[in-house]
Specification:
The complex is a heterodimer. Chain A is of the alpha+beta class. Chain A contains 5 helices and 7 strands. Classes of the chains: A alpha+beta, B alpha+beta.
């Protein structure tokens, strides 16, 4: 009994010694880590832990100077449906946006979309292309990406809020002279080719979106649509290279100049947009 | 007799030559160029009499001929062919079966739409005639692994 007790005592004593040593070591270690110059040569140098990355809070960019963008599918069409339907749809859209980050983009920007595909290698399919059209309102909003792969033009119409979409990246944010770039199908292929391994071009979250004022050269006629006609109102084609001035004048025969004065076709969305923007920003920040 | 025949032939050839010369001239000038046949807009997917583009590297599909390959029969219940359907083509004066691998008509929302009606030549048992397909194929073709696995094997990329 006494022997056990003495053994226990010795154990306790050694344990206490060890603990004290450990504490001392820890204290030493902590001071050595704090100081930039190592003071102790008796111990091994501590394992290098890189300092944590500093969180940059840019105070020059206030919330007010950030570019405010309301995605066009939030703006409800002018219909006889109950606004309640649009408000529940907006709730669902915001719920999806909290899970998947849908960035700001315009027609003419270059995007890369990764979607879940049961038939593809690794179950995901990545497609890079230029956005030629944004259509639909609410949860059925779509955008069409176009690219030319192996001399074959490919277009994919993606649904923004589809659960199959895993990631949307904006590789280059820019606007073009038109809202609808369907004429790229009849343009020379160099205007629709996008490098699939393109590096993302950095863009600033403040200020205006850069507008690419390039005018596109077209293939010889016939085109899929008569793009020279005023109903399409296309600014981004070099018509002087494909059409004679007589043909341009002949196209103006289909002009409908009375449409801009038609009051029943007016749909002013500025106040609606402000309201929706504040609502969406509030909901997203929750 | 022979002289009149040759003169007749030359007379027949001349307007064709002049048309081709004017065609060349017009092509070199970059302003106006009209095709000599009418082209209608995209109506439906592949049906009878559609001109298709053969995308494999078989000799039958790639040697030039004065008539484009045309579909003469579509092996579906309705006469409309979508991706993955078999069709019968008339190429170089012969009949040949083929598999549709892409069409200009927009289909399902997340599936690709190609700028040309693409077709791969096939034998009766489903084996492809060519050895390589450079053009990207839609991924949902992989669901028909059983019948057309050899076609999928020679494909180089999927979209």
């Amino acid at each position: 009994m006494a022997a056990c007790v003495s053994v226990l005592d010795k154990c306790m004593f050694s344990l206490r010694l060890l603990r004290n040593l450990q504490l001392q070591n820890e204290r030493l270690l902590s001071t050595s880590v704090c100081r930039p110059a190592p003071g102790n040569n008796s111990e091994q140098p501590p394992k290098f832990t890189p300092p944590s990355k500093p969180v940059i809070i840019d105070k020059t960019q206030t919330a007010a100077s950030l570019r405010q963008f309301l995605s066009p599918e939030f703006i409800p069409p002018r219909q006889r449906t109950d606004p309640f339907k649009f408000s529940i749809e907006r709730k669902d859209m915001i719920r999806r946006r909290k899970v998947l980050n849908i960035p700001e983009f315009y027609v003419g920007s270059i995007l890369a979309v990764t979607m879940a595909d049961p038939n593809a290698n690794g179950k995901t399919n990545r497609f890079v292309g230029i956005c030629i059209q944004r259509g639909g309102k609410g949860l059925g909003a779509t955008f069409v990406l176009r690219n030319i792969i192996d001399n074959q033009g490919v277009e994919i119409c993606y649904e923004l809020y589809s659960p199959r979409i895993q990631k949307i990246e904006v590789l280059k944010l820019e606007k073009r002279l038109d809202d609808n770039l369907m004429y790229l199908r009849d343009a020379l292929p160099e205007y629709s080719t996008v490098d699939p391994d393109m590096k993302p071009v950095p863009f600033s979250p403040t200020g205006e979106v850069p507008v690419n004022k390039m005018k596109v050269k077209m293939r010889p006629k016939p085109w899929s649509k008569r793009w020279e006609r005023p109903k399409f109102n296309i600014q981004g084609i070099r018509f002087d290279l494909s059409l004679t001035p007589e043909q341009m004048e002949h196209a103006q025969k289909w002009a409908q100049p009375w449409q801009e004065y038609d009051m029943l076709k007016e749909y002013d969305t500025s106040k609606l947009e402000e309201q929706l923007l504040s609502e969406v920003q509030q909901e997203m920040s929750k | 007799m022979i002289r009149t025949h040759t003169v007749f032939a030359v007379v027949m050839a001349l307007p064709q030559l002049s048309r081709s010369i004017t065609g060349l001239l017009v092509e070199t000038s970059s302003i106006v160029h009209q095709r000599t046949f009418s082209v209608s807009a995209v109506a439906a997917a592949i049906q009878k009499m559609t001109r298709v583009r053969v995308v494999d590297n078989s000799s039958l599909g790639n040697t030039p001929y004065h008539r484009a390959p045309r579909v003469i029969h579509v092996y579906t219940k309705n006469g409309v062919g979508k991706v993955g359907d078999r069709v019968l083509l008339a190429i170089k004066g012969q009949k040949k079966k083929a598999l549709i691998v892409g069409h200009k008509m927009p289909g399902e929302r997340m599936s690709p739409r190609f700028d040309s009606n693409n077709v791969v030549l096939i034998e009766d048992n489903g084996n492809p005639t060519g050895t390589r397909i450079k053009v990207p194929l839609p991924t949902h073709l992989r669901t028909m692994e059983g019948d057309y696995s050899k076609v999928l094997a020679i494909a180089s990329s999927f979209v």
